[in-house]
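Model the whole thing, not chain by chain.
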Amino acid sequence: MINVTARYFAAFRERAGRDRESLTTDARTAAELYAELSRKHGFADSMTRCKVAINDELAPWDVRLSAGDEVLFFPPVAGG
Amino acid sequence: MSFKITSRPIDPIELKRSLETDSAGACVTFEGWVRDHNDGAPVLALEYEAHAAIAEQEGAKIVGEALERFAVTVARCEHRVGKLAIGDCAVWVGVTSVHRGAAFDACRYIIDETKQRVPIWKKEHYRDGQSGWVNCATRADAPAAAPR
């Protein structure tokens, strides 16, 4: 188990009712953590349409999590 | 800065002036405006949110790709965040090149990639008092998924 901080943006923030939370998780990758948090908060977006950033850098979903990581969850983007 | 997130109104005239170079024979600009409807629903206002640092990083990458792929002289993009009213300019792209073809292509590339890749989100406020995040399946008012 590791401790990480999850941060939520836009639709994810409203859905989770908070913009960040500290978690103890056995998720090994960002993808596993997203699956865990989707169950917890009811995120309905397919991971393939979302993005993740680790410590303020965009990262692939299969990136390994390390203790203390800040994991940013981005719902589907809609600029323009 | 080639790609900027701003909370202030976009000034297309000033931005266009910043593109001027003697070697350019063509200038293509694009402005994305807030319109009063989407998918048949009347829209009163829009709210844009971004992760500014990552948006500017990814946006600069897109502008860099445009400079590599197309024979353009200068390329810039600015995207506004915050609450916008109907008719406001939400995004501006400007490109100059020696000949027009490259400027059209690069301008299109920058706006298309921005819409797909840059962490910016758009919330629509509708006339009936409802609101919704564009492109998102996750809804604040939806019932929570049952734990599995």
